[in-house]
Specification:
globular, alpha+beta, two-stranded antiparallel ribbon, about 100 residues
């Protein structure tokens, strides 16, 4: 079972994820990083199938970097959340993504 959660307080945010990669009752890896840095003010944590999780979070990370490279300014938090929501909705509709994510 995987666990990802976040807490937001007055002037701070904490993002927490477990580090185990499991399938059924087998633990394949105990040092899996499920939190990725998008830029200096944004993090994304994801849980789900290992391949889907890694590909989706790297895809979002690279698109945020591409937006900043093309426009010269970082993507806003609202813009980032819209990007995640659009991409996740598209993938869920097509039926090939099994990932839950949390962005702070």
């Amino acid at each position: 079972m995987e666990c990802v959660f976040g807490l937001v307080g007055n002037g701070f945010a904490i993002l927490v994820a477990d580090t185990s990669a499991v399938h059924s009752i087998l633990v394949h890896k105990s040092n899996e990083d499920k939190i990725m840095v998008l830029d200096s003010h944004k993090l994304i944590a994801a849980s789900g199938e290992p391949g889907d999780r890694v590909q989706f979070t790297e895809f979002i990370q690279k698109n945020v970097a591409l937006y900043q490279f093309r426009n010269g300014i970082p993507l806003t938090t609202a813009g980032s959340s819209q990007l995640y929501a659009r991409r996740a909705c598209y993938c869920f509709e097509k039926g090939f993504l099994y990932v839950s994510y949390l962005m702070l």
